[in-house]
Design a protein that fits this description.
The complex is a heterodimer.
Chain A (H helix, E strand, L loop, with lengths): L5 H27 L3 H19 L9 H23 L11 H9 L2 E3 L5 E8 L5 E7 L4 E4 L4 E4 L6 E4 L2 E4 L5 E2 L4 H10 L3 E3 L2 E5 L4 E7 L1 E4 L4 E4 L5 E5 L2 E3 L5 E2 L10 H8 L1 H36 L7 H8 L1 H4 L2 H11 L6 H10 L9 H29 L3 H9 L4 H29 L2 H7 L19 H10 L7 H33 L1
Antiparallel strand pairs in A: 1-11, 2-3, 2-8, 2-11, 3-4, 4-5, 6-7, 9-10, 10-11, 12-13, 13-14, 14-15, 15-16
Helix pairs in contact in A: 1-2, 2-3, 3-17, 6-17, 7-12, 7-14, 10-15, 12-14, 14-17, 16-17
Chain B lengths: L1 H12 L9 E7 L3 H15 L2 E7 L1 H13 L6 E5 L3 H6 L17 H6 L1 E2 L2 E2 L2 E7 L1 E5 L10 H11 L7 E4 L7 H10 L3 E5 L5 E7 L3 H16 L8 H9 L3 E6 L4 H6 L4 E4 L4 E2 L5 E2 L3 E10 L6 H12 L2 H11 L2 E2 L2 H4 L4 H10 L2 E3 L6 H16 L4 H15 L4
Parallel strand pairs in B: 1-2, 1-3, 8-11, 15-17
Antiparallel strand pairs in B: 3-15, 4-5, 6-15, 6-16, 7-11, 7-12, 9-10, 13-14
């Protein structure tokens, strides 16, 4: 490696310096927010990048490292988090962290049975210490710094009466007036001044009221005690539960081990619908890929002819379905397939007097979805086929022609096997994508039409992932993230198995034809 | 050495400790954000407290609030519908509020919609419900009973034009719009236990009355009086083309109806004669919208001050009413309501607030599936009984 010019070196140092400064700034911010996972990722990535740029041997890694950092942060981490969630009970009712629930319950106060209201005046000194003058309904005055209440006798020297209004005269303290009160409100709101077994809590902008504290949390014994009844609650299964089974809402998320997986495997309802949904998912993915690949390859073969006029125009037009956003195309197709007002039924009604129940009959809905998916994905297949066709040497075709092979024979024995070597991994990828194509199913039919005799919300066009969504987020009692994560891990194993088999078969092809 | 200096500087600059600051953050939808920003500016001028209004699309608002509060970054006030309270209260995300004497200024039904387990969780501002909207050109006098409605439908329906007697969003899954048919005969969603609390194990969507209503709907569908597979876009297309004589819809369609130039009238959904000869008015779901306070907010006092003195005033409530075209929950504002809003309120007297308990999620799902099956010709009794079974299973009541 040639030695670097001074300009090159100084630019490198300056940019690295700026990067390091930004990393330190972001790192301190993350540390104050206790986001330690992100912080460690950031430090690891920054250190790696510094080493890569400053060290001669690791220099080639300088482009790979940022990519790796983002890969870990945006792909690996969510996967690991998903696996973690599947072992917890994260769902509606168990959404918050335990510390948040404790904060909530510990901070609950109910109005005292015979509540007393106190008006107040606030005073601050230049060290921002607080002093409150509280006056109850009988005209008694009290002094408080926030931690306790001290009765003020009328002849106390700190107490002054001026033109009928009362106030405090303590050295260094200035009264808080006007808009300053609003700035002080969050601090006053957090106070709970103990007095006589009750607590004084801010109630409205201008007064304090007596209140009873409902719970006290004991961190050492990990117990919540109801101060009124004396019942103590311990965390059981994500909820604070008493000895006789009464639980306090809200609950919090907690580790439950394999419970979500056991629910899936032991649920008779899920078992009943699983086979039907799984079969349709496999059929859907297979037929989608098969038809779109056939259509794409046909167009690629046609467009491969260099003597075809306006070839580029055709190719551009054929790319349109691929370029349009799925959200828009899905809705347009759904409108076109509408049974009463869609354009297909209108044409069919006018010509043949027949109405096809495109999206309301189970079989027709499945066919409609495959039609839409083929329309959306054939341009991609056309592009990759066009690319792969270029890699087949012309001499092979010449040899085949000399041997007397016709066009179909040439395609079947020369073109297709050689294409498959390079395209098989892509087809497996397309299969995996279609297997999990939640967007299209959800936008066009949402899994419907419904099936009579289903034991879970599984419609006729539900694939595994949309079925998961309906069980976890549109059924039961709210959102069940733990269950959804567990099911998605099982789906991953299914696809991984199918893909592994597919890869092994395509490697076999390479050995024969490669 | 230079790098070390830079490091020290950065460390010194950073590390702002977040003390509780007096600031109000509000999550609102796009319709109401401009009004809230104006009110916020007024509040800031009067009290010096900064107000920030964060805008979300209505459909994103519900989950945005949950996610941000979970992460500790939630707002102080959020606008929402009362049926979100099931999820919010179960997760401990909203704070009970006390309207004090001001509670007398709000309609009892709206306050009840925002009450869960005896505690009020929000300040309501609007309520909405379905009613019968009819085209005066095709229906000169509104039907007073369902039999009159059937007669009008049969006289008017012409599949060639196409012109239908009655249209509503009956696309699969739209249980909200299907409920009036079930409720007329006595169907209900959740019953109550002896303490008056909602009992999720008592589901009434497959009662005899409900089956009667569903059968009536299916017969009208088969006769061609009601078009099938109508979703929001199709409904708008029907309005634009004047393709239906009557609609069962809510205030959200009025703008499109006005734009299509239909001379419209709004009336109660006519009572249906049950098998025992008695007339029952179909009950509709009412949805109430209001302002809720975050239980993790550090500015609850300021938030309540803002709600009581700036939102809970006649001027603001009238402005909100005009923005959303919904009946106000604040009684002094009703005096300034237009005729459309008053007409929808008439039906609201026969309204049932949507149950807000988390188990309602199953009802939407399975009820929607039942509607789907009924649309496709399944026997209504079978479809509704299956839905009831699945709801009870999903809610662990069996």
């Amino acid at each position: 490696m040639r030695s670097q010019s001074p300009l090159h070196l100084s630019v490198k140092i300056i940019l690295l310096g700026v990067l390091d400064a930004a990393v330190v700034w972001a790192g301190v911010g993350l540390a104050t927010q206790a986001a330690y996972a992100l912080l460690s990722l950031l430090l690891l990535g920054a250190t790696g990048l510094n080493i890569a740029i400053l060290s001669r041997r690791a220099y080639p890694l300088r482009y790979l490292l940022p990519g790796l950092v983002f890969l870990v942060g945006m792909v690996v981490y969510p996967i690991l988090y998903n696996i973690y969630i599947s072992f917890t009970n994260l769902q509606t009712g168990n959404l918050l962290q335990k510390s948040q629930v404790v904060q909530l319950l510990d901070g609950r106060y109910a109005p005292a049975p015979d509540e007393t209201t106190y008006t107040y005046q606030a005073y601050l000194n230049d060290k921002n210490d607080l002093l409150l003058l509280l006056t109850d309904e009988q005209g008694n005055h009290f002094l408080s710094r926030g931690e306790s209440l001290e009765a003020l006798a009328p002849d106390d020297p700190r107490f002054v009466t001026q033109d009928g209004s009362v106030g405090l005269d303590v050295a260094g303290y200035q009264p808080v007036t006007g808009a300053g009160i609003y700035q002080l409100l969050p601090r006053l709101e957090a106070l709970a001044i103990p007095t006589d077994g009750l607590y004084l809590r801010l109630s409205g902008v201008r007064q304090f009221r007596t209140a009873i504290k409902q719970y006290r949390y004991d961190p050492k014994a990990d117990r919540l005690v109801d101060l009124e009844t004396g019942v103590s609650y311990t965390p059981v299964d994500g909820r604070f539960t008493s000895a006789d089974g009464k639980a306090i809402e809200p609950g919090f998320q907690t580790w439950v081990g394999l419970r979500n997986f056991v629910t899936i495997f032991s649920s008779a309802a899920i078992g009943k619908d699983f086979l039907r949904v799984f079969l349709w998912t496999v059929v859907w993915a297979t037929l989608s890929v098969f038809f779109s690949f056939s259509l794409g390859l046909s167009f690629a073969l046609l467009l491969n002819d260099r003597t075809l006029r306006l070839r580029l125009v055709y190719r551009t037009l054929l790319l349109v379905p691929y370029v349009m956003p799925v959200f828009i195309s899905a809705f347009v197709w759904r409108g076109m397939f509408n049974e009463n007002f869609g354009i297909f039924n209108r044409i069919l009604g006018d010509l043949f007097n027949v109405q096809v129940p495109w999206l309301t009959n189970a079989m027709w809905a499945r066919a409609s979805l495959i039609i839409i998916n083929v329309w959306l994905t054939f341009p991609y297949m056309m592009l990759i086929s066009l690319g792969a066709l270029q890699s087949i040497p012309d001499q092979l075709y010449e040899a085949a022609r000399v041997d007397g092979a016709g066009a179909w024979r040439r395609f079947w024995t020369v073109t297709l096997p050689l294409l498959m070597i390079s395209l098989a991994p892509l087809l497996i990828g397309a299969f995996a994508f279609a297997f999990n194509n939640f967007t299209l199913i959800y936008l066009v039919t949402a899994g419907r039409p419904a099936v009579l005799g289903a034991a879970t919300p599984a419609g006729a066009t539900d694939i595994l992932i949309s079925w998961t969504y309906r069980i976890s987020f549109q059924g039961g009692s709210g959102n069940n993230y733990g269950l959804a994560s567990a099911i998605s891990i099982l789906i991953f194993f299914m696809i991984a198995t199918i893909s592994a088999i597919g890869f092994r078969m395509s490697r076999h092809l390479e050995e024969v034809y490669g | 050495m230079k790098k070390l200096l830079l490091l020290v500087l950065i460390v010194a600059l950073a590390g702002v400790v977040g003390a509780a600051q007096a600031k109000l953050t509000i999550f609102a939808d796009d319709t109401r954000t401009p009004l809230l920003r104006d009110l916020g500016a007024q509040f800031t001028a009067d009290t010096g407290v900064e107000v920030e209004v964060v805008e979300y699309a209505w459909n994103d608002l519900r989950s945005a609030y949950v996610t941000s509060t979970q992460a500790g970054e939630g707002p102080d006030i959020v606008i929402g519908a009362h049926d979100w309270l099931g999820e919010y209260v179960a997760n401990g995300l909203v704070e009970p509020i006390d309207l004090g004497k001001k509670a007398a200024d709000f309609s009892q039904a709206a306050l009840e919609a925002f009450t869960v387990n005896g505690q009020l969780y929000g300040m309501p501002y609007a309520s909405e419900n379905l009613a019968l909207v009819y085209d005066k050109a095709l229906v000169p006098t509104p039907p007073r009973t369902w039999d009159e409605l059937l007669a009008i439908c049969r006289a008017v329906t012409d599949p060639e034009k196409p012109l239908y007697g009655l249209a509503f969003q009956n696309q699969a899954g739209n249980f909200y719009q299907f409920f009036p048919f079930l409720s007329a005969g006595g169907g209900y969603i959740f019953g109550y236990d002896d303490k008056g609390a909602v009992n999720p194990c008592d589901v009434g969507i497959a009662t005899d009355g409900a089956i009667f209503g569903a059968t009536l709907y299916q017969s009208m569908l088969d006769e061609g009086l009601i078009p099938s597979g109508v979703d929001w876009d199709t409904l708008n297309a029907l309005v634009e083309g004047h393709n239906a004589a009557m609609y069962i819809t809510g205030p959200w369609l009025i703008d499109a109806i006005k734009k299509a130039g239909i001379d419209y009238g709004i009336t109660q959904i006519p009572p249906i004669k049950g098998p025992n000869g008695a007339y029952n008015v179909p009950k509709v779901f009412t949805g109430v919208q209001g302002f809720m306070v975050n239980s993790f907010s550090e500015n609850k006092t300021i938030a309540m001050d803002f709600l009581m003195n700036y939102i809970g005033t006649t001027d603001t409530m009238v402005a909100l009413m005009n923005l959303g075209n919904r009946a106000p929950a604040y009684l002094p504002a009703v005096a300034q309501a237009g005729p459309d809003i008053l007409a929808f309120s008439q039906q609201a007297a026969f309204g049932v607030p949507m149950p807000s308990i988390p188990a309602m999620a199953s009802v939407w799902q399975e009820g929607g599936n039942a509607l789907d099956l009924i649309n496709n010709g399944t026997d209504p009794a079978t479809a509704l009984k299956q839905a009831q079974d699945l709801i009870l299973t999903a809610v662990d009541c069996k």
